[in-house]
Amino acid sequence: MENSQPKSEHSLSLLTVADLEALIVKIVHKVLQQETQKLQQEDLSIEPTQPKHPPQAFLETFGRWEDTRTAEEIIDEIYSSRTVSDRDYTF
Questions:
Q1: Nearest C-alpha neighbor of 30 from the set 63, 70, 3
Q2: What average pLDDT does the segment 60-88 reach?
Q3: pTM above the 0.70 mark?
Q4: Sign (positive/negative) of CA torsion 33, 63, 61, 79?
Q5: 66, 55, 51, 67: which is closest to 24 by C-alpha?
Q6: How far is C-alpha 83 from the chain's CA centre?
Q7: Counting Cβ atoms within 10 Å, is residue 29 exposed (0-12), middle (13-18) or buried (19+)?
Q8: Radius of gyration, alpha carbons of the chain
Q9: DSSP SS3 for 18
């Protein structure tokens, strides 16, 4: 993106999760449009196997993390899956 500075005077820290998700969707749409235009300008064909509306198909892969475990259970699993090497490293 050419200018990464927000045009709004609002601080990003004041945005809600929904606001951030909407912003991400707008950015993804814009980037996909730009890339599609580049392909068309370069006279490259888009594979016919792609869905009719590629941006929507891509956006449908977004979502929230779903897990039935508590945060503590997830953290415990992360720590328990870590391994410590007993190799003697010299530098």
A1: 3
A2: 83
A3: no
A4: positive
A5: 55
A6: 29
A7: middle
A8: 21
A9: helix
